[in-house]
Amino acid sequence: MCFFLFLPTRKRLRGARLAQHFTAASLLCRSQCSLFSLAPSLSRLLSSLTVRSRCCNRSRMVYPPLEGRRGALLVIAVACVAWWIRVDSSYPESERRMEQELESHRENFRKQNRSCFVLGASGETGSVLLREIVSSRLFSRVTTIGRRQLEFPDDSYKDVVQEVVDFEKLDDYANAFKGHDVGFCCLGTTRAKAGAAGFVRVDHDYVLKSAELAKAGGCTHFNLQSSKGADKNSGFLYTKVKGEIEADVHKLDFERYTVYRPAVLLCDRKESRPTEWMTRKVLSPVAALFPTFITTPVETVVRAMINVAVTPASKSVQLLENAEIHRLAAGKGAH
Asked: Which residues span the membrane (predicted)?
């Protein structure tokens, strides 16, 4: 701030006006969300600018009305920062309480000796989900159902049962779906990889048939990974198919049915195209600033799935949008 005193008079006056804009904006934020009590460092910065304003321009009002485009933009910017950093004064206590409740749910769930299966365990989400399930030891029996045998990285997977099936003849493999309490479906492909017909066959037909066999085999809680914007009436093939499979699985009337609608998944794909790589690079800064806006890390989806599975159901059907997935992944519970 010392260099401020050596600026030409006109620039000092401009700096003073800027400081006054900061001060007025801070007053607005103080009335809206107690910015000063929540951000001491920003408070000290604004206070120092106010003092400088008084020193350099004694004859002017200290808190003049904001004028001009710069003042308006400054108010908006500081208000946005205030909104972003505001927190509830009871946050630490409530956070600890929710963590304790979640841990209690995990322990109770573990004692029930539940079993689960994972569809699509070779995919980006499914592989991370399987890893977390194995490391958490929440299930007494874990089964993967897929079209090929998987190679696991270490001995922690030694108790995982692998069922290799032909998805074109799933009825012949009905036994693979029997005896599981919880089912996780991360099965899916892309139109670019499988073509339009192949995409519908995998993301709808295979998923629906698997859900039917799971229901017949005794599965009580079916978890389906869908997508943000899923709508059976959509004009776009991807979101239309996702909406249709959500509705068709719902008709099977599982005792508990949870649908996850993440936004753009952030992950390191094994088969990454240049456009996908570029998309991840572009969206990474957005994800850092606005984590629930248009992106969802795969790990976040997985944590939400596990937290939902171990928590007693508040309703039989849950449709979780992106923001709710982030909340559940953080252990904050559903609204």
From this structure: none
